[in-house]
Design a protein that fits this description.
Blueprint: E1 5-6, E2 9-10, H1 19-27, E3 44-54, E4 59-66, E5 76-82, E6 87-90, E7 105-113, E8 116-126, E9 133-143, E10 148-156, E11 162-173, E12 179-187, E13 192-199, E14 207-211, E15 224-233, E16 236-244, E17 260-267, E18 270-278, E19 286-290, E20 298-304, E21 318-319, E22 321-322, E23 326-331, E24 334-339, H2 341-345, E25 351-355, E26 358-360, E27 368-372, E28 378-384, E29 391-395, E30 399-403, H3 411-415, E31 419-423, E32 429-434, E33 438-443, E34 448-453, E35 460-465, E36 469-474, E37 480-481
Parallel strand pairs: 3-21, 6-37
Antiparallel strand pairs: 1-2, 3-4, 4-5, 5-6, 7-8, 8-9, 9-10, 11-12, 12-13, 13-14, 15-16, 16-17, 17-18, 19-20, 20-22, 20-23, 23-24, 25-36, 26-35, 27-32, 27-36, 28-29, 28-35, 29-30, 30-31, 32-33, 33-34
C-alpha cells in the first residue's frame, strides 16, 4: 500500500487525525442548500456515479469523491449499499493506494461475476519524468457485503492510435458469456470515440475488439467521449455517453458538456441508430450510468453537475449530488424517464393547493409538485427572499424555459447563461421535485427531463403564478445513512 499525499493528490490514508471532522464542521454551517432526499457527499466533491449494480439482494452505489475540499482532487470511490434508495449503508470505499492509481481512481462500472462484484475503473497516473498522464484500466473485486477483496491493473496505457484520454470502462456480458467493456477515448487526431475490449473471464488479459461505430451521430468538434454505457432496453440496443466538444445550440445541447443517448440495433460494433437525443436539458446533468444486473427495469443515476462549474456550496466544503434513481423506458422510439417507483412509494399523500396569484406552501423547498398545464402558457416564480431572488419556470405553448438569472450564481455558472429551454408541444403533466438547491423536472410522464441546481438563501416558500393552477403537493421521504 502506498500513501499518496501530494497537493490535491491526497488519499484518505493521508488524512490527519480529526481532519475530516473539521471539514464536516464547515459542511454543517450550510443551512440553506444541503439536500434531504438526494445522495450527496459527507465532505468535499462528488461527481460521476460508478459501479452501479444489483447483487441479487441490494444495490451498490459508488460515486467519484474527493474528501478534502470542493475541488477536483484525487478521486476515490465512495461506496453505499441500499435496497430501496431511501436507506443507505456505508460499505468499503475504493481508495487509491497502488501505483496503478497513483493520481486517483477514475470512473468505471461493475459486473456481477459469480458471487463477487467486479469493478472496472481507470487508474489515473502521471509519469514522474514529465508529468505525462498514463491511464491504466484496472479491476477491483468486492464481495456482496461491500468488502474489497483485491485489485489489479488490466491494461497499461492507451492502445496505439489513441491519446492519454482513455477512460471510464463500463462492462457487460455478451450473449456467449464473455466479458466486454467499453471505454471512452480520444483518437490521436483529437476526435472522440469509444473502444470495446473483451475477456474470456476475470483472469484473462483484455483484447481490443474495435471501436463502437455510430454513423448517425454528428461527431464534428467532439474531442472526447466520456462515460460510455452500452445496454439493452427490451429489444433495443441503447448507447449512453457524454460527448465533449459538441457545439451548443439554442434549445438543445445548451451546456458546455452533454449527456446523450442513441437507440437502434447493434450489428457487430456498429450501432445503427434510429434516434439520438439528450437525456436531460437542464443546467446540471452529466455522466449518467445505468444499474447492471436488474432484470425487470432499467435504472439510471447521474451526476447533478458539470465538469467546469463551481457552486455557492463550495464555500462550505461540499460540491454536488446524484440524481434520484430514474427508470428508463422506450415509448415512440424515444427514452422516457421518471423517478424510480421507490421514490413515488415514499411520497406523503398528495394535497391540492389552488394558486390564484401567490401562495405560501410549507416545505416547498423539499416538495414534490404535480400539475396539468393543459397545453396553455404559464409563468411560475418559486421562492422569494429579501434580495428579490426567485426561480422562474415558464411555458409559451411550445417552449419551456427554466430561468435562474434571479438566483445566486458563481461566475462559472453565469458564464454558461442563465436560461435553459425545452421544446415540447402539447404539454400536459409537469412534475417538479425540489430539494433545497436542486430541482428535477419531468414533463409528460418523462418525455423530457430538466435537472438543475439553484441557490436562494433565506428563502420564503412561496409560489407565484400568472394564472390559476391546481397544484398537487407531497413530501418525498428523506434518505437515511447508517
Amino acid at each position: 500500500m502506498h500513501i499518496f499525499n501530494n497537493g490535491k493528490y491526497k488519499s484518505l490514508h493521508a488524512a490527519a487525525a480529526g481532519e475530516l471532522t473539521q471539514i464536516e464542521s464547515a459542511v454543517k454551517k450550510d443551512k440553506d442548500f444541503r439536500p434531504h432526499y438526494h445522495l450527496t457527499t459527507p465532505t468535499g466533491l462528488l461527481n460521476d456515479p460508478n459501479g452501479l449494480i444489483w447483487d441479487g439482494e441490494k444495490y451498490h452505489v459508488f460515486y467519484q469523491w474527493f474528501p478534502f475540499d470542493a475541488i477536483h482532487g484525487m478521486k476515490h470511490w465512495k461506496h453505499y449499499t441500499t435496497q430501496d434508495f431511501i436507506h443507505f449503508t456505508p460499505a468499503q470505499d475504493l481508495i487509491p493506494d497502488e501505483l496503478f492509481e497513483s493520481h486517483g481512481c477514475y470512473s468505471g462500472g461493475a459486473l456481477l461475476v459469480g458471487d463477487n462484484i467486479a469493478c472496472f475503473y481507470t487508474g489515473n497516473t502521471r509519469r514522474p519524468s514529465d508529468n505525462q498522464r498514463v491511464p491504466f484500466q484496472n479491476l477491483a473485486i468486492f464481495d456482496k457485503n461491500g468488502k474489497l477483496l483485491s485489485k489489479r491493473p488490466l491494461i497499461e496505457n492507451a492502445p496505439q492510435g489513441y491519446t492519454e484520454h482513455f477512460r471510464d470502462p463500463k462492462p457487460y456480458f455478451t450473449a456467449e458469456g464473455k466479458i466486454r467493456f467499453v471505454c471512452g477515448a480520444q483518437r490521436e487526431n483529437l476526435t472522440g470515440t469509444a473502444v470495446i475490449f473483451e475477456m474470456d473471464n476475470l483472469e484473462d488479459t483484455p483484447r481490443v475488439i474495435g471501436e463502437l461505430a455510430l454513423p448517425a451521430f454528428d461527431n464534428r468538434n467532439v474531442f472526447m467521449w466520456e462515460c460510455p454505457d452500452l445496454l439493452k432496453i427490451k429489444d433495443n440496443d441503447v448507447f449512453i455517453w457524454s460527448p465533449q466538444g459538441k457545439t451548443r445550440e439554442p434549445h438543445q445541447f445548451q451546456n458546455n458538456y452533454h449527456a446523450t443517448y442513441a437507440i437502434g440495433q447493434l450489428e457487430g460494433q456498429t450501432l445503427n441508430s434510429t434516434y439520438i437525443a439528450e437525456l436531460d436539458q437542464g443546467f446540471d446533468f452529466y455522466a449518467p450510468q445505468t444499474v447492471a444486473n436488474v432484470a425487470d427495469r432499467t435504472i439510471l443515476l447521474a451526476w447533478i453537475g458539470q465538469p467546469d462549474l463551481t457552486y455557492p456550496t463550495d464555500e462550505y466544503k461540499w460540491h454536488s449530488m446524484l440524481t434520484m434513481p430514474r427508470e428508463l423506458r422506450i415509448e415512440q422510439g424515444k427514452i422516457y424517464q421518471q423517478p424510480a417507483r421507490e421514490i413515488y412509494q415514499n411520497l406523503t399523500a398528495l394535497q391540492a393547493v389552488q394558486v390564484e396569484n401567490t401562495a405560501e406552501i410549507a416545505q416547498l423547498d423539499r416538495a414534490y409538485i404535480q400539475f396539468d398545464a393543459q397545453q396553455q402558457p404559464f409563468k411560475l416564480d418559486f421562492f422569494h427572499n429579501e434580495k428579490g431572488e426567485t426561480l422562474t419556470l415558464s411555458y409559451d405553448g411550445k417552449l419551456l424555459c427554466l430561468d435562474r438569472a434571479k438566483t445566486e450564481q458563481t461566475d462559472w455558472m453565469e458564464k454558461f447563461d442563465s436560461q435553459r429551454y425545452c421544446e415540447i408541444e402539447q404539454l400536459e403533466q409537469v412534475e417538479i421535485f425540489f430539494d433545497r438547491s436542486v430541482c428535477e423536472i419531468f414533463l409528460n410522464r418523462g418525455e423530457k427531463a430538466m435537472t438543475s441546481r439553484f441557490f436562494i438563501r433565506d428563502r420564503q416558500n412561496v409560489v407565484k403564478s400568472d394564472r390559476a393552477l391546481r397544484l398537487e403537493i407531497a413530501q418525498p421521504k428523506a434518505i437515511e445513512i447508517k
